[in-house]
Amino acid sequence: MLVVGSVLAVLAALLHVFIFYLESAGWTGPQAARVFGNTPEQAESTREMAFNQGFYNFFLAVETVVGVIFLIAGSTGIGAALVLAGTGSMLAAATVLLVTSPDKRSAAVKQGAFPLLAVVFTVVGLLV
């Protein structure tokens, strides 16, 4: 189960690296406009905020991947703590988006699916 949780955690991290790219490097570009539904004016006026928010996503991804590395190396306690902190934070952010922005429910579900499954499989793996 820890292996499945680790794979799901890496997938969650990869998705958050992509979100980091969109928010930090590609915010004013056409791909981010399609994904987030921003006009060029909105993107320009929120550029600093998105840049900062992108780094939050990146740091959660890094934390999660480092946790998986510790799990692979046999340091289960440290690895699980980092994986659960990273994916749990991703899941919490997706939940906030789901609750506070009904028009973005689809994005919240996409953002939260891998972290939710990673948390479940990691916890079950620790208990078995």
UniProtKB/TrEMBL annotation:
The chain crosses the membrane at residues 56-73, 80-101, 107-127. This is DUF1304 domain-containing protein. The keyword Transferase does not apply. It comes from the Bacteria. It comes from Corynebacterium provencense. The keyword Membrane applies. Keywords: Membrane, Transmembrane, Transmembrane helix. InterPro entries: DUF1304.
